[in-house]
Amino acid sequence: MNLANLFNNYEEAVAMILFGIGFSNLLLQKNLIKKIIGLNIMDTAVYLFLALKGYIEGRKAPIVVNGVQSVEAYINPIPSGLVLTGIVVSVSVTALMLSLTIRLYRRYHTLDLDEISTRLKKEGL
Amino acid sequence: MSKKVSEEKYKKTLTYRLKQWLDGEDLFTGTVEMKPQEPYKVDQAVSEQRHEEKKRLLEQIYDIEHNPEMRIFNKIYRLFAFLFCIFLVLMLLTAVSNLPTVGSADRPVNNEVAKRYIENGLQETGAVNIVTGMILDYRAFDTLGESHVLFVATCTVLILLREDKKKKAEQNQNNDRLYEPKNDVILQTVAKILVPPIVIFGIYVILCGHLGPGGGFSGGAIIGAGLILYQNAFGFHKTERFFTAKTYKVLSFSALACYALSKCYSFYTGANHLESGIPLGTPGAILSSGLIFVLNICVGIVVAGTMYTFYVMFRKGGY
Amino acid sequence: MGALIILSAALPIIAGALLLLSLTAERRCAKGPAREVAEPSAQKLRVLHLQVLVILSISALLAMTAAWSGEHEITLFELIKGIPVYFHTDGITCLFVTLSSLVWLLSGIYSFVYMKHEGKEKRFYGFYLMSYGVLLGLSFSGNLVTMYLFYELLTLASMPMVLHNGSREAIMAALKYLFYSLCGAYLGLFGIYFLYQYCDTLAFVPGGSLNLGLAQGKEGILLLAVFLMILGFGAKAGMLPLHAWLPAAHPVAPSPASAVLSGMIAKAGVLATIRVVFYVVGPDFIRGTWVQTVWMTLTLLTVFMGSMMAYRERVLKKRLAYSTVSQISYILFGLSVLSPTAMTGSLLHVVFHSIIKCSLFLIAGIFIFQCRKTEVSELAGIGKRMPKTLWCYTFASLALIGIPPASGFISKWYLAQGAMEAGVGAFGWIGPVILLISALLTAGYLLPITLKGFFPGREGAGLSVENQEPVLRMLVPVAILAALAVILGLFPNLLVSFFSQIAGTVM
Amino acid sequence: MEFVQNFPFFSIILSLFAGPLCSILNGKWAKRVNLAVITIILAMSSAVLAFTLRTGDSYVYMMGHFPAPWGNEIRVGMLEALMAVFFCLIMLLCMIGGVLEREREIESTKQNLYYIMVNLLLSSLLALIYTNDLFTAYVFVEINTISACGLIMIRQNGRTFEAAIRYMIMSLLGSGMLLLGICFLYDLTGHLLMSNIKEQVAILNASGQYHMPLLITVGLISVGIAIKSALFPFHAWLPDAYGYSTLSSAAILSSLVSKGYIFLLVKIFYRVIGFDIVRDSKIINVLFVFGVIGMIMGSISAIKESNIRRMIAYSSVAQIGYIYMGFGFGTELGMIASLYHIISHAATKSLLFVAASGITDASGDSTDFFDLTGAGYRNKLAGIAFTVGALSMVGFPLFTGFISKLLFAQAAVDSYHKLLPALIALAVSTILNTVYFMKTVIRIYTPEKREVLAKKQYQVITMKDQKWKSAALVCFIAINLFFGLYSEPVVGLLERGLKIFA
User: Fold this and answer.
1) Count: domains in chain A
2) Which of C179, C432, D191, D473 is the 20 to 30 A CA-CA neighbour of D462?
3) pTM (predicted TM-score)
4) Cross-chain Cβ contact C179/D488 below 8 Å
5) A40 is in which domain, residue-wise?
């Protein structure tokens, strides 16, 4: 990896590290709520990364003001749109995960996934 | 002369087994349960015992505290997962270090696509806010899917949390105070003052989605927040007067249906190179940019309903 | 002509399927909660028998004409690209078609009477016809995949005949049969994967189509593949170590079923082995390798073990089953020696053994049918009651033992001679010795029945008086088979020349 | 532009619209609507298939007034059409087969929600099949995931919840990586439409610019989709999800959902990255290795399993291993074999699930292996159907499994280095399959002792008792036989479709 460029787009590097943090939380945490937090961190990291794609130094948000319609005036609108879409997706997924957690908690009075599956296996079969 | 061996001892020997095998008695004892000769019996007792054994086995295997193998396995698993994460991050950093520089205007992202969006967006979609124009007209298919993601998520939440059983519902009625807030004067007063502006602002954001920052999603979220605040202050009885499950159903269905049908129309006309007779209006006016205006409203309704429904479901499991 | 092949194979299959369908239809319109079909009237039965006979003879006729009138080939359709379902005829085909037609016809006629006390005729004849058709298809099949297809089908079609009487033992035996055959077939399939790649074509070419240039450096794994195939297809032929299904399956099946089972269906394994070794891989590839050695050892072991088992077996049909195990391994041994003479011997033995063993099983069936006797010890004095039957039995067993001039002698002679002149080292003399020993054993386990039958001594009281000779419809096929067993031994030249010519083409 | 060409878009939008429609109907009407929708879409897709076969070429359908690369678009060739037809068929049969279980196991007030899920699942599958835009693909992948999760947990017990949440976690990891990969691709090429991306990627590859990120992107996307489609190490959620959810969910999930992702992966390989680039990147070797391991491990855990439905579930781990092994060959033949296996596995596995439910019905709703003794006599059709499915799974000729195994063998012949491991894995897993499937068949045909029967009071099930399920079973058997005997044209169609797919 060439470090110079890495420092040039340190924002992206930060996004990646955030992604890693979220990913590892989602993968490794036992506590469901923490898993969900990890999920959100991960998604946010991706959106940050995506938003950076659109950013161009010294240009304005893509809303046409007083008729200026040259490419030089505005940043790239596409990533912003994608981020909008993505945010909605992550909202829905989070809601789903949370409600699943609620049901599991009502049943087993614990948020520890391994604990839950252990109990299941014990009671099951 | 070989000395006599007792029967059972003989049965243990290898030669006896070999003889069995040569007689073609059965090679597969235990593996494929082929015991033609002695009748096979599964009576209650045996199966009970089998289940008991299984249970005990599971008890031993799966109680993590007293099962060192399990613990070690978990440790190793977590270690590997962690290493995998590290590896992933390093990979990603490597990738990033080779990506084009952030914020420079001459990267592949800024190509003819963005150019056209910016330069002709206003004329082609009639939306001043180029992003709105893009997500609701150029790339409307994504947005259609996206609003359905929201819808399907709501449905899963309903599956999980809606209480349909009669007696559960009665219980909820009985300990309803558990859900109802105390009559908190400060909260109610503040809510009286705040809720109308919030809702109106939300409506404004929705309606001006194509003119400035905002649009269906943000506006809908704002309205949902207003509803939630109102519910907190005044409780379910008051909200149920104007917002019930039925309301939500009808609203969301009609909104989504309207969305789908209008998009269906524009896709169809577009694909078949027909002229969609929808006037774009003068850019900047409220009633402009054709379908985008309608779509924003639809999305707004869906999102507002969804936000409120999420809240209600998490809170009580029923309107 | 090609159409004839398809027709002759398809006719019995379709007819059998129709029979079964009609059976289900009957069951649907049958009254009562049990949904049991009423036992069909004698009239109905006669019609059924007539149908079966007609279908059998027609398809036999077609098959014969297709087989004996020169070489034809026909491609039915492409299973997948480059792997057609492809039929063609050659010497081996003629041999198997003729033999199976003979066996099926005769034991069919026999079974018309026999199946009375087994019941469920319709189901039996349904599968009987189907397996006949499938066997025809198997012997017509012209490439490896087609053969594999019909081989598996044969298992499926013949299994219901084993579990006919529906008792627990029968079902377990049938499932055992299914499992052994399937596992064997998969060992074969593994080999097919390999040969598919290293052969120029999957079609059968006398002398094999293995592309040695391609196989360069891959001999080891290829040999393993071939060995697995021999082992797998040996399962149906009852070769060690996958022989265990035979003694389990034969006693429980109805006698006509076990007759065709050990007469022809077990020979399907032999056919498959012949095709693989002599028509795909080629004998030169495995000559002198460990595969040949192991194969010969296994066959000889099976020969010996089978006759030992038969010798110490009490139940007649089980005894016959074990003797089938050993006798078929004679054939396999003859093949494994890889010399033309021995191959001639084994082909001869295919013919003789089918005829003899078929007749023996039918006779055992007669004993069961007439006086419900299955144990050998119970048969003392049987000769007083049914001398004709027992005479047939005697001739057949003499032939099987190989007393000159009866047929068995010829084949075993060729086998031994081939083994000696093949230059397979120690096996050159070990083989014949073991064959001799097992021939003695054969005499040991077959002849006592004759002796006890005719000269029961004091034990003859076991049989009540009313057991008389069976009706002609049962006796005639047996007689024909027994007669054939002797006559073919007297005038073997035609067969010998035919088979040696076949053997000449592949080696 | 002919009217038929609109049908793909219509089918997507129709099922998308049927989802919200079901939300205001009650369960019964929702069911009718759902069945009607699936049938209509089946008809439309077959029309599209006929059309593409006639023209012999694929066409692009513009979603909106703006051509690519500005607007969305979907692209239809015969491969896509074939997949659409087949998916609709299987889904229809699964829905028909599972009617009884659904009414028994789902709260009556939540039936319509189930049909919402099914409709949206269907629409997302169709969109995944047809779309030509990566981001659209991402959005519909999410719909697919969420509605699949809904299908799992509609039958509400602890097992399904745990399975659902494990499934969600896994697939969220997967979709995170997928989305990130898409972002990378977008950053490198500046496009979201597959065809344009491919052009740019070709240029980049030629110039050698951004080689590293491109490689990592391919890795991210493949691993992400592999996780989502339960490739071997990531299958923890699968047995519970398939084993305890309601019948039609299990059948649909096992036969269609993962296949949708896999088809997307194929599409990305061919239409986005370009298959030769993928081949040169070492990622497919990873897929190959995991596929082979999955083939073996899946079968082994299936042998160890004593719950019949979980056993079938584990066997589908093995089958997905087959598919990825086919990708791993990195050849045309391997890809065709995998595509064919997608079809044949879908047909067989759904058959197995439905038949297994029929068997368990006849043995007092116990899925335990030992309680199934003699179930084949109590429910004849289900027994026969299960036997057919098992034979097809173990690769008995006449059934589809045999054909796909042969195709895999052919493909293995082509790629020299992977020949031996592939063939050995094939043989070993075939034998393992034989062991556990034949074991089950033998078990269900082992006559039960009379006294046990007297004690347990099993009910005997005839075709009249379960009309719908029997109809579905018969259709499934017919499909298996069809693809087993008449596979040549299908394979040819796959080849042609794959040629014009890129």
Assistant:
1) 1
2) C179
3) 0.84
4) no
5) 3-123
